[in-house]
Write a structure and sequence with these properties.
By secondary structure, the protein is of the alpha+beta class. The protein has helices at about 15-20, 55-65, 75-85, 95-110, 150-160, 175-180, 185-200; strands spanning about 25-30, 40, 45, 70, 110-120, 120-130, 135-145, 165-170, 185. The protein contains seven helices and nine strands, in the order H-E-E-E-H-E-H-H-E-E-E-H-E-H-E-H.
Length: about 210
Amino acid sequence: MSNSPDPFELELTADLVVRAYQAGIFPMSESEDDPDVFWVCPEQRGIIPLDGFKTSRSLRKTLKNHPYTIKTDTDFLATIEGCAHAGTDRNSTWISPTIVRVYAELFERNICHTVEIWEDNQLVGGLYGLSLGGAFFGESMFHRRPNTSKIALAHLVDRLNAGGYSLLDTQFISDHLQTLGGIEIERAEYEKRLHHALMHNGHFNAIDTR
């Protein structure tokens, strides 16, 4: 019997996070002030089928006529800080300084990516997540103007479809995500889809917005 330590009891590192996602596990903190993390592997996993993203008539109009500039991977820290700060739609977040540190390293390694919504020189919405093979693991999103998180998510879906991805993982499903086509699947089904997605290479920069 091996006496080696459980890898998920080790200090949180970028390499450990990658290994966890490849195994269908992801880290969270209890609160934005908690330096510790715990590991989550839900029985019911949230995903958005890339051929099933739903847009209402009003959202389609917004996507055609919004005044914002969409960028990717230009300001990771501002994006994750936007996601980390409690807002009118939430009282607290799970994005701790430990999470920020590790995902910043993943960003530097071109594993973590952002979709950013800019109004002139102000970041007014966006999201971030990890890209591994043909899977994208959405972490969090935020908005400072109406619909800017929806604009970011719609752009992400377009980008993933253009880049040959097969899985958009949202971890959990909220009422908001359900209106956009989000569904829950059993863990076993998720693991099958994850295994398939990791066998292929997605190209996050198939659409150039920078």
